[in-house]
Write a structure and sequence with these properties.
The chain is α/β, with parallel strands linked by helices and 469 residues long. It has four domains: 1-89, Rossmann fold; 90-233, Beta-Lactamase (2-Layer Sandwich); 237-310; 318-466, Histidine kinase-like ATPase, C-terminal domain (Heat Shock Protein 90), CATH 3.30.565.10. It has 14 helices and 16 strands. It has helices spanning 14-26, 41-45, 62-74, 95-101, 124-133, 152-158, 162-165, 179-190, 235-271, 279-310, 322-339, 359-375, 421-426, 434-444; strands spanning 2-6, 31-35, 56-59, 82-85, 137-142, 147-150, 195-202, 208-220, 223-233, 318-320, 343-348, 355-357, 382-389, 393-400, 448-454, 458-466. The strands form four sheets. The protein has a five-stranded antiparallel beta sheet with strand order 6-5-9-8-7, sandwiched between helices. Strands 11-13-14-16-15 form a five-stranded mixed beta sheet, covered by helices on one side. Strand 8 and strand 9 form a beta hairpin. Helix 3 (62-74) runs antiparallel to helix 8, helix 9 (235-271) packs antiparallel against helix 10 and helix 11 (322-339) packs parallel to helix 12. The chain is elongated. 26% of the residues are buried.
């Protein structure tokens, strides 16, 4: 096993240094290097090789673990080789917490369970009993993510005893998601934000389960001193949801065949292959064709959603020029732009870099954002699209001065099948799947999406994508 260790902290307690030295002495033949700072790609490249089959043990602060994990993956190391161990130092700010929860000093579950722990009088007996007996997994960690307390449900769900968890981190049963995922979670909670996410975990017996996790900071004098994390096992729910998604996929796929036949026959009638149509007949066939096209668009959207949720949406990255895809989408939307007498302005910086991503998925992003801008703009309005290079990659901005999104409903914009009240009044034919699909694609491509909107003043969407997928 290769070992990459770090204590990325200026304040190192004596017991933490002793622990590090003891670990190194125990693993002299396998320890490659110890970094006191975040290492560069070149430093990792000298000791880590993608063809090596040995596990790579990464220990240190959360930032160090995420950074080194990402570097290893970028060098072609398979994620199965990465192993994590909690060797986190305890800063001065959380020393009292460690003393408070240390099982050698205070038992977690007092013999007399009719009273609360004397060490935590402010929590109260009722709170202690609720946390101890709740069916949801509850863990309290210090600022560095080191476990200080876990309830009985956490022991039951993970299979690890409280003694085994103590002074480890939740990576004891986690660590199966991508380094980028953990970095996002860590950055949010370090900023004092509550975080809610789904995560894949592994019990002590090796079985996998899906959990809905909530992490909230514990503050003292506006400083984060600890975190409380809860998890709910939703494996069965996800299994049923997957079965539903598979059914939708199969049903939608089967519906495409008769709809294609309807479209083909409608085109033959409009072309006069079955004889000339009267104006009234032609009007009816055009309406059939339009309704059929809307149904096909809905089914294709459902198929895309099902593919993402089943994890079968394939990605084929290649070098892409964004302005080429943008112009293609604008050409496709030109009839609708002309019909609504809209002005479209687009800006592509001269130094715009090519990116390595999936062009088909990128086209879906452009098409959904721009078609929404066209659909919800008022006649004579203006749509703006800009493409710029950033330090991280590419920034796409799409703006309109249309109906906007009501403030009370903005938190639902990326939910499946959601449509704002004013959007349904403006256009009754929307599916409520476009922005859900866009967000899923952006996440899959390693990017981010955000927006600002004001009702009757317009909306601006911001998409950031990395240069390399």
């Amino acid at each position: 096993m290769l070992s990459l260790l770090a204590y990325h902290s200026k304040e190192r307690p004596i017991h933490a240094l002793k622990e590090l030295k003891a670990f190194v002495q125990k693993n002299l033949q396998t320890t490659i290097s110890i970094h006191e700072d975040i290492p560069t790609r070149e430093q990792i490249e000298t000791v880590v090789h993608p063809t090596d089959t040995r596990p790579i043990l990464i220990s240190g602060s959360q930032g160090f673990v995420d950074h080194v994990s990402a570097l290893c993956l970028s060098l072609g190391v398979h994620s199965d080789r990465l192993v994590f161990e909690a060797l986190y130092p305890t800063g001065k700010m959380t020393k009292d917490l460690h003393d408070m929860f240390d099982p050698d000093v205070h038992p977690f579950f007092p013999a007399d369970e009719s009273r609360a722990m004397k060490e935590l009088p402010e929590l109260g007996e009722l709170f202690y009993m609720v946390v101890k007996q709740t069916t949801n997994h509850v863990v309290i960690t210090d600022y560095n993510g080191v476990i200080l307390f876990a309830n009985e449900a956490a022991e039951r769900i993970t299979g690890y005893s409280l003694k085994e968890m103590y002074y480890q981190t939740p990576r004891l049963w986690g660590g199966l998601m991508s380094p980028a995922f953990y970095k996002i979670v860590w950055d949010k909670k370090s900023a004092g934000k509550s975080v809610v996410y789904e995560i894949l975990n592994r019990r002590k017996d090796g079985s996998l389960y899906v959990a809905l996790a909530h992490i909230a900071p514990i503050l003292r004098e506006d400083k984060i001193i600890a975190y409380v994390a809860t998890e709910e096992d939703i494996t069965e729910f996800k299994r049923l949801d997957k079965a539903k998604t598979e059914f939708i996929f199969l049903a939608s796929h089967q519906l495409l065949t008769p709809l294609s036949a309807i479209s083909w026959n409608a085109e033959m009638l409009l072309d006069g292959d079955a004889g000339a149509l009267s104006p009234q007949q032609q009007k009816c066939v055009v309406e059939i064709q339009q309704r059929n096209q809307r149904m096909v668009a809905l089914i294709n959207a459902l198929l895309n959603v099902a593919r993402f949720e089943m994890g079968t949406f394939s990605i084929s990255p290649e070098t892409v020029q964004l302005e080429v895809i943008l112009h293609s989408v604008l050409d496709e939307l030109e009839p609708s732009v002309q019909k609504n007498k809209l002005q479209v302005k687009h800006v592509c910086k001269k130094d715009l870099a090519a990116i390595h991503t999936d062009p088909n998925l990128l086209r879906i992003i452009f098409l959904n954002l721009l078609s929404n801008a066209v659909k919800y703009s008022l006649e004579g309005g203006e749509i703006r699209c800009s493409l710029t290079s950033t330090k991280e990659g590419i920034q796409i901005d799409v703006s309109d001065d249309g109906i906007g999104i009501p403030k009370a409903q903005q938190n639902k914009v990326f939910q499946k099948l959601f449509r704002a009240d004013n959007a349904m009044r403006k256009d009754t034919h929307g599916t409520g799947l476009g922005l859900y699909i866009v967000k899923a694609i952006v996440n899959r491509l390693g990017g981010t999406i955000a927006f600002e909107s004001e009702e009757n003043r317009g909306t601006t969407f911001h998409v950031s994508l990395p240069l390399y997928l």
